[in-house]
């Protein structure tokens, strides 16, 4: 059985990733051993609350949740209520009555000890903090959603949101991997923004979910995201980056990837969070990433409905 540790910043698409992982957990395909959160879409306290609320709604309140680092390594925290809503989950307002594990590092240590797959769908603050004193040895794999690698950004002309929030963490994380010999599977915007849910797909998903409690909250969760994307000129639909990333991390869909060296700009005001892949080995530097270059999007939609049927049972 695959064991999974999710580090996230819910976030609408993080919530859908949690729903997917919960479905696989319920039928014994994976064990979700823990969820930790970073500050990103909203504050770290709110991301932890949103994760706990999602897990409760999904019947997994026993999974430990802990808030991680409260702010980026070297820059002030910027959140995105215009994208994910005032509380990070669209038009919803989760309750505040949740208790969290005291130490996010303890969850990571336990996950590492059982060889969990580490999936990171928020800023890399926790991962960079971990890397400063520990290795990524014994994690089954590392997968990251982030970056606009050699591609247009969604936050600035060149930067993706997660890397822009904490550029120093992203830079240090990939530098650490280059020295350690580990490779992170990197799912960047060029691929993840292809995974779209629109109104017909949402209706189908809700129909498949049936009486599952998550079905009752999805419309208000996603309506905000649809409206945001429409205001950006991208149509009444939403890019579900983090859900696609979890499917790739667990090899549930086919994808193409290339080993390369990733670097992230941290200090330039104009290029903050910009990510670059050295695809022609100009730097002659050790590889630190498997950059996903294509994924089977049709299969991802099929996989989502498969998982939804588990939640409906």
Characterise the protein shown here.
One of its GO terms (cellular component) is cytosol. The chain is an alpha/beta fold and 313 residues long. The chain has one domain (2-312): Ribonucleoside hydrolase-like (Inosine-uridine Nucleoside N-ribohydrolase, Chain A, Alpha-Beta Complex). It is 42% helix and 18% strand. It has twelve helices and twelve strands. The protein has helices at residues 12-26, 44-57, 81-84, 104-113, 125-133, 161-165, 167-180, 189-192, 199-209, 213-231, 241-249, 297-312; strands at residues 2-8, 30-37, 65-67, 117-120, 141-145, 184-187, 196-198, 237-239, 255-260, 262-264, 275-277, 289-295. An eight-stranded mixed beta sheet has the order 3-2-1-4-5-6-12-9, sandwiched between helices. It has a two-stranded antiparallel sheet with strand order 7-8. α1 (12-26) runs parallel beside α2, α9 (199-209) packs antiparallel against α10 (213-231) and α9 packs parallel to α12.
């Amino acid at each position: 059985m695959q064991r999974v540790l999710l580090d996230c910043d819910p976030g609408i698409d993080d919530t859908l990733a949690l729903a997917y992982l919960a479905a696989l957990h319920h039928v014994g395909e994976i064990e979700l051993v823990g969820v930790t959160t970073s500050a990103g879409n909203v504050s770290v306290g709110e991301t932890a609350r949103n994760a706990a609320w999602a897990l409760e709604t999904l019947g997994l309140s026993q999974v430990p949740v802990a808030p991680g680092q409260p702010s980026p390594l070297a820059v002030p925290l910027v959140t995105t209520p215009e994208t994910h809503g005032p509380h990070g989950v669209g038009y919803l307002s989760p309750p505040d009555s949740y208790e969290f594990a005291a130490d996010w590092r303890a969850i990571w240590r336990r996950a590492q000890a059982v060889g969990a797959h580490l999936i990171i769908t928020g800023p890399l603050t926790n991962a960079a903090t971990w890397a400063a004193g520990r290795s990524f040895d014994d994690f089954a794999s590392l997968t990251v959603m982030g970056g606009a690698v050699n591609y247009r950004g969604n936050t600035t002309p060149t930067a993706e949101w997660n890397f822009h929030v904490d550029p120093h963490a992203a830079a240090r994380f990939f530098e650490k991997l280059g020295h350690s010999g580990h490779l992170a599977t990197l799912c960047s915007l060029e691929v993840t923004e292809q995974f779209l849910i629109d109104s017909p797909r949402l209706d189908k998903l809700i129909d498949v979910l049936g009486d599952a409690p998550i079905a009752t909250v999805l419309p208000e969760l996603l309506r905000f995201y649809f409206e945001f994307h429409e205001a950006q000129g991208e149509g009444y639909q939403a890019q579900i980056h983090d859900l696609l990333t979890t499917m790739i991390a667990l090899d549930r869909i086919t994808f193409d990837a290339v080993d390369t060296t990733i670097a992230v700009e941290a200090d330039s005001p104009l290029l903050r969070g910009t990510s670059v892949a050295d695809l022609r080995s100009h730097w002659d530097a050790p590889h630190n990433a498997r950059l996903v270059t294509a994924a089977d999007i049709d299969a991802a939609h099929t996989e989502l409905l498969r998982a939804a049927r588990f939640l409906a049972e």
